[in-house]
């Protein structure tokens, strides 16, 4: 039963991936796709649609969804709070400001991505130092709230002075999240940070359970919980900043997917963290496919994730209450 | 495994960032050897937990010495007071966490670690709860899970902060027997308690804390000092 569950989990992103490659304004049949992927002589249009548009979007969606979900599980364990999410420590807000500022300055796609990454990663440094020095979770949460609040205000200031005909719509659409900017260059610049951050979190998956114990117990065992906490925060920051730099703000995934996975795999992070990678990746591919296929023009990704996520979250809360 | 826990003129308390020191306890001195059980008694707020944190190494003393000597690197287990919310893990997974000192930084527990955790749960008489989530069991049962976790780390020194709290009389007796068994295996046990009667029956030494000072008393006089008749 457990093996079947794991197999279905791995097959889920693969299945929605194939679905995502096939559907859209230009329909690609399964036989076209098979011919193309097996190195056959496919039509040029099919090749262009799959390799230049849909495959990069699919890869980016998997990385973003999987990365945010792994980061979300880790944050919920780190703060021992089911409402924690990757943006709890303010990294996403800082990265958003970096992107908005670069757009205001007229930077190109590469400049926007780099600025978002730089702001996101730079902000994680004081958060980590606070975590290590104060050794207090509450202090770190409060610092995250302050950082979030300051950078949200700065984003509002950038929007206020942006040109309403040109820059403001671009910034607003960008902040609502989209995979439309996916191409090889975007992915190459951001993916290493997600792979590194999520990879370390996956390697540390069992040890992250220790963060739920009282610090005194950890320290008596010879562990250094504040160091582990700082490493987890650094990894979550890398993932969050990289996701925002590639596809803007995408809410709900990092909060919702961990809860869905826990309902099926229990609470042990050894199982939940890797399962969240596949579940989050698959969900994001599905959300992106809906975002570009539901209407004639593309719907912002965070609209889809929030509309689908809120009722599912309510269902989970209801189930938790009935169990408790 | 011959170990010795020595506290020499130990002073414990807190110091804030500005350097202001609040001393809770001073002049604590004693010596424990493998097989000893030290019960720490005293009123609420007298400094029992502060002393236990110092002895376990979770907090540094303000002055004085605390030393755990013997062959090899000593292993310490600390069971904190029952104040935090229970872990969302299953009881077995919660106990396996105690195997952390034996695992590499990137390793996960093996079947052997799980078997040891199951044995620890069996020793505490709650083996049938292995698959149940910790937030679905009673406070007393969760207490036993925390103690089982301390056991699986094969400690030389076990420090327990009010382990009898939330336990019914049957489980308190079971706990006292378990502490004696652990001591008989050559471990040093230090625990705080408000049950002077049990301390008199279980401990080989009793440290009574009052007004910032600690006094080593014979176990048979624990009730008299605790005002517990």
Task: Write a concise keyword list for the protein shown above.
heterodimer; A: 324 residues; mainly alpha; ABC transporter involved in vitamin B12 uptake, BtuC; 13 helices; B: 229 residues; three-stranded antiparallel sheet
Series of secondary-structure elements of chain B, N-terminal to C-terminal: EEEHEEHHHEHEHEEH
CATH superfamily of chain A, by name, is ABC transporter involved in vitamin B12 uptake, BtuC
Question: Any low-confidence stretches of chain B, pLDDT <50, length ≥5?
Answer: none
What is the count of distinct domains of chain A? Answer: 1
Low-confidence stretches of chain A: none
Note the run of SSEs of chain A as H and E. Answer: HHHHHHHHHHHHH
Q: How are the strands ordered across the major sheet of chain B?
A: 5-6-7-3-8-9
Q: Do you know the CATH architecture of chain A?
A: Orthogonal Bundle
Which class of secondary structure composition applies to the elements of chain B? alpha/beta
**What is the number of E strands of chain B?**
9
CATH T-level topology of chain A: ABC transporter involved in vitamin B12 uptake, BtuC
In CATH's first tier, which class of chain A applies? Mainly Alpha
| N-to-C CA distance of chain A | 26 Å
> Rg of chain B to the nearest angstrom?
17 Å
Shape of chain B: globular
Helix share, percent of chain A: over 70%
Number of helices of chain B: 7
* Number of E-type strands of chain A: 0
């Amino acid at each position: 039963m457990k093996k079947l569950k794991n197999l279905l989990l791995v097959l889920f992103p693969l299945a929605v991936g194939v679905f995502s490659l096939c559907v859209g304004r230009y329909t690609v049949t399964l036989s076209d796709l098979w011919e193309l992927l097996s190195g056959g002589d496919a039509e040029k249009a099919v090749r262009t649609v799959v390799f230049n548009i849909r495959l990069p979007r699919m890869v980016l969606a998997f990385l973003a969804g999987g990365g945010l979900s792994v980061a979300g599980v880790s944050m919920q364990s780190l703060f021992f709070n089911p409402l924690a999410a990757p943006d709890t420590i303010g990294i996403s807000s800082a990265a958003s400001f970096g992107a908005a500022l670069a757009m205001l300055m007229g930077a190109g796609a590469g400049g926007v991505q780099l600025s978002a990454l730089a702001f996101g990663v730079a902000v994680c440094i004081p958060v980590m130092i606070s975590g290590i020095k104060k050794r207090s979770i509450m202090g770190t949460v409060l610092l995250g709230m302050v950082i979030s609040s300051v950078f949200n205000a700065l984003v509002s200031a950038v929007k206020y002075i942006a040109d309403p005909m040109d820059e403001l719509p671009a910034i607003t659409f960008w902040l609502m999240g989209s995979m439309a900017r996916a191409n090889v260059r975007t992915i190459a610049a951001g993916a290493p940070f997600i792979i590194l951050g999520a990879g370390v979190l996956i390697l540390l998956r069992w040890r992250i359970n220790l963060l739920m114990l009282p610090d005194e117990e950890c320290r008596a065992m010879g562990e250094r919980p504040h160091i582990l906490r700082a490493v987890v925060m650094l990894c979550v920051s890398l993932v969050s900043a990289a996701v925002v730099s590639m596809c803007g703000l995408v809410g709900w995934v990092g909060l919702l997917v961990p809860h869905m996975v826990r309902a099926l795999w229990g609470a042990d992070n050894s199982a939940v963290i890797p399962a969240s990678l596949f579940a989050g990746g698959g969900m994001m591919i599905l959300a992106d496919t809906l975002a570009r296929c539901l209407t004639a023009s593309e719907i912002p990704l965070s609209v889809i994730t929030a509309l689908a996520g809120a009722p599912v979250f309510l269902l989970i809360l209801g189930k938790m209450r009935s169990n408790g | 495994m011959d170990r010795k826990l020595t506290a020499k003129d130990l002073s414990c308390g807190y110091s804030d960032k500005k350097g202001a020191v609040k001393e809770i306890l001073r002049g604590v001195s004693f010596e424990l050897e493998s097989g000893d059980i030290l019960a720490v008694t005293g009123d609420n707020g007298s400094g029992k937990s502060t002393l236990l944190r110092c002895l376990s190494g979770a907090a540094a003393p303000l002055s004085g010495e605390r030393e755990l000597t013997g062959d090899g690197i000593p292993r310490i287990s600390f069971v904190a007071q029952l104040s935090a919310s229970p872990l969302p893990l299953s009881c077995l997974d919660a106990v396996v966490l105690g195997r952390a000192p034996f695992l590499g930084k990137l390793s996960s527990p093996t079947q052997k670690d799980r078997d040891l955790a199951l044995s620890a749960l069996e020793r505490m008489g709650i083996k049938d709860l292995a698959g149940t989530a910790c937030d679905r069991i009673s406070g007393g049962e969760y207490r036993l899970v925390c103690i089982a976790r301390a056991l699986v780390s094969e400690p030389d020194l076990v420090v327990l902060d009010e382990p009898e709290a939330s336990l019914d009389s049957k489980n308190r007796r079971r706990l006292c027997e378990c502490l004696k068994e652990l001591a008989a295996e050559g471990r040093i046990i230090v625990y705080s308690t408000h049950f002077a009667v049990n301390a008199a029956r279980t401990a080989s030494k009793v440290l009574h804390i009052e007004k910032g000072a600690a006094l080593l008393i014979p176990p048979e006089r624990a009730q008299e000092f605790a005002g517990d008749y």
